[in-house]
């Protein structure tokens, strides 16, 4: 497996944007949010376990997971949330490891909104935090999705604040400027990482 570098940042900070800029430089990435969706697709053991735990009504008629219903259940019961996570977390972890083992290149990126919160930084040689003032996070998140300011604020409150995330990371990418400025920063960071890895 290549060396793994963690990429994190709050909602709307630019994780997907930064990952695709690295992809253009030939660096592969795996997004933990995508993996979380992948493990509950029809046919996956995880979905079978979820159905066994919560009953058939947790599925839609087409056999896919009824996410709204699941959210409703675990939102009101921390015990059931813990039971759900006991199923999903190991599966997500395993799938992330599988993906990473197939990647090529001098290093790869693990994109995770809760890299430090979920302690996935333990899988990473280095970590990158995208830093953005809260008001810009809110603006950009609202520009992209149909979420209300209230919903986004609520999500931001469940995530580590920008200062703490930045203080934990090895590298910081400030994304308060233009997309072009971000691209230049990513190219410079990529070169710096290659240099550091070469010296080891
Ligand atoms: P989430 O955690 O919600 O999945 P994310 O961290 O992956 O978000 P992106 O989707 O990459 O964030 O970016 C959020 C929005 O901000 C997108 O619409 C993106 O195009 C836009 N964006 C990213 N960087 C910039 C920038 N420097 N200037 C203007 N818009 C930007």
TrEMBL record:
<keyword id="KW-0067">ATP-binding</keyword>
<dbReference type="GO" id="GO:0015937">
    <property type="term" value="P:coenzyme A biosynthetic process"/>
</dbReference>
<dbReference type="Pfam" id="PF01121">
    <property type="entry name" value="CoaE"/>
</dbReference>
<dbReference type="InterPro" id="IPR001977">
    <property type="entry name" value="Depp_CoAkinase"/>
</dbReference>
<comment type="similarity">
    <text>Belongs to the CoaE family.</text>
</comment>
<dbReference type="GO" id="GO:0004140">
    <property type="term" value="F:dephospho-CoA kinase activity"/>
</dbReference>
<keyword id="KW-0808">Transferase</keyword>
<keyword id="KW-0963">Cytoplasm</keyword>
<dbReference type="GO" id="GO:0005737">
    <property type="term" value="C:cytoplasm"/>
</dbReference>
<protein>
    <recommendedName>
        <fullName>Dephospho-CoA kinase</fullName>
        <ecNumber>2.7.1.24</ecNumber>
    </recommendedName>
</protein>
<dbReference type="GO" id="GO:0005524">
    <property type="term" value="F:ATP binding"/>
</dbReference>
<comment type="pathway">
    <text>Cofactor biosynthesis; coenzyme A biosynthesis; CoA from (R)-pantothenate: step 5/5.</text>
</comment>
<feature type="binding site">
    <location>
        <begin position="12"/>
        <end position="17"/>
    </location>
    <ligand>
        <name>ATP</name>
    </ligand>
</feature>
<comment type="function">
    <text>Catalyzes the phosphorylation of the 3'-hydroxyl group of dephosphocoenzyme A to form coenzyme A.</text>
</comment>
<keyword id="KW-0418">Kinase</keyword>
<dbReference type="InterPro" id="IPR027417">
    <property type="entry name" value="P-loop_NTPase"/>
</dbReference>
<keyword id="KW-0173">Coenzyme A biosynthesis</keyword>
<keyword id="KW-0547">Nucleotide-binding</keyword>
């Amino acid at each position: 497996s290549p060396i793994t570098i963690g990429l994190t940042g709050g909602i709307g900070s630019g994780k997907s944007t930064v990952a695709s800029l690295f992809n253009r430089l030939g660096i592969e990435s795996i997004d933990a949010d995508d993996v979380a969706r992948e493990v509950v697709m029809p046919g996956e053991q995880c979905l079978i376990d979820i159905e066994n735990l919560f009953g058939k009504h947790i599925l839609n008629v087409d056999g896919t997971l009824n996410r709204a219903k699941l959210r409703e259940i675990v939102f009101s019961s921390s015990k059931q949330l813990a039971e759900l996570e006991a199923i999903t977390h190991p599966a997500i972890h395993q799938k992330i490891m599988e993906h990473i083992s197939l990647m090529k290149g001098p290093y790869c990126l693990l994109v995770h909104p809760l890299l430090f919160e979920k302690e996935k930084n333990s899988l990473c040689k280095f970590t990158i935090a995208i830093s953005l003032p809260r008001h810009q996070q809110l603006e950009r998140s609202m520009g992209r999705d149909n979420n209300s300011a209230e919903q986004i604020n609520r999500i931001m409150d469940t995530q580590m604040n920008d200062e703490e995330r930045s203080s934990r990371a090895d590298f910081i990418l400030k994304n308060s400027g233009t997309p072009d400025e971000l691209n230049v920063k990513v190219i410079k960071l990529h070169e710096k990482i290659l240099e550091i890895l070469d010296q080891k």
